[in-house]
Amino acid sequence: MKKLKIASIPGDGIGKEVVPAAIDVLHTVAELHGGLTFEFTDFPYSCEYYLEHGVMMPEDGMKRLSDFDSIFLGAVGDANLVPDHISLWGLLIKIRREFEQTINVRPAKQLPGIQSPLVNPNDFDIMVVRENSEGEYSSVGGRIYRGEDEIAIQNNVFSRKATERAMRFAFDLASKRKGRVTSATKSNGIVYSMPFWDEVFKDVAESYPNVKTDQQHIDALAAFFVTNPSRFDVVVASNLFGDILSDIGAGIMGSIGVAPAGNINVNGKYPSMFEPVHGSAPDIIGKGIANPVGQIWTAKMLLDHHGEEEMGQVLLDVIEETTKNRIITSDLGGSHSTQDVTNEIINRLKAKA
Ligand code: ATP
Ligand code: MG
Fold first, then answer.
1. Most exposed of 132, 152, 204, 278 (fewest Cβ within 10 Å)?
2. CA-atom Rg of the chain in angstroms
3. In the predicted model, is pLDDT for residue 121 greater than 90?
């Protein structure tokens, strides 16, 4: 029997509503699997925890989390309770940094029965792989002079190690999918870092002869996400470009409530962390209407990460059957509750046994 030890951090707001729902779903997946069990340990780290203890997590928090196979997180931050810079840096960003989760993966896929804002959505199924540790979001730079002579300088940092790591991850992922990687570049305008990015892309591509490649400038690529998203499989991008592309990806899916994400520690030295794209949604707390699909799809990414791709596919199929039958929450134009959607997914999984 394979046992996965998962640290669950429901966090704030609707995180406390959708994480238990997704955990119920994962237990059902384990039953269906037969040879897999989950052991969840709940951690109360959140804004409420901060109000009580003055910190987002205790001193030994990171050490305790490091014992787990993965972290399953809901949402962190509720600006009505604690300023965002405290809650994010004290928990979310702290985990991402200290556990070297240098890659962020975000699927963008059209779910049946859901209205995409695109005029012609076709059938898109994209994975955006974002380098998440350096690039344009470095803290190298400064400001000089004052007044009308003032100059701000922000340096991009691209190391061969981190760039190669993101690209290898993208190629490995594409090998299990449709076998295509598109690189987001801008080497016609950014003349040092982006030609370097292109070079590393070419080098890495050589060791994956079965994966087709292409490169697009980020401006054209962003437009294609809107006009023809079905042409993409895996898209690999720098920190800034990946940030923008993955938000376009969530946008064309129809609601932020369905978008999943993974923060990956590639070397397996520390746990990876899976969390939906949406936040704590303070405006709908306690109403029972939070869309659980983002968190449940995030659970599918956790399954994939631990080599349970077959079960991951079963879970995604069931999510799609559920949206197709319009068992959906109000953010998608439906009238079902969090519990209705969760029950539907669980019942459909049980029916596959
Ligand atoms: P953060 O800064 O943590 O990302 P935010 O306020 O910017 O928080 P969200 O918390 O994601 O962003 O909320 C944005 C809007 O989307 C809100 O109106 C919220 O109610 C809605 N929303 C977010 N997640 C869901 C969900 N799972 N189901 C339904 N509505 C959601
Ligand atoms: Mg936000």
1. 152
2. 20
3. no
- CA separation for the pair 322, 36 (Å, rounded): 24
Is the model's pLDDT at 122 over the cut of 90? no
Protein residue whose Cα sits closest to atom 9 of ligand 1: 279
Atom 26 in ligand 1: residue holding the nearest Cα: 257
Question: Tokens representing 211?
Answer: 């994966």
What is each CA distance from 328 to 92, 110, 320, 323, in whole angstroms?
29, 15, 11, 6
Helix-helix angle 338-351:15-33, to 10 degrees: 10
Residue 291 CB–ligand 1 contact under 6 Å: yes
Pocket test for ligand 1, best of 256, 297, 319 (most atoms within 8 A of CB): 256
pLDDT digits (tens, 9 = 90+) for 201-222: 999 999 999 999 999 999 999 9
Q: Is the pLDDT of residue 274 over 90?
A: yes
pLDDT in tens, 132-190: 999 999 889 999 999 999 999 999 999 999 999 999 999 999 999 999 999 999 999 99
- Say which amino acid occupies 84: D
- Tell me, what amino acid is at 274? F
| Distance in angstroms (rounded) separating the CA atoms of residues 196 and 288 | 49
323 lines ligand 1 (CB under 6 A): no
Domains detected in the chain = 1-102+256-353 (3.40.718.10), 116-139+156-253 (3.40.50)
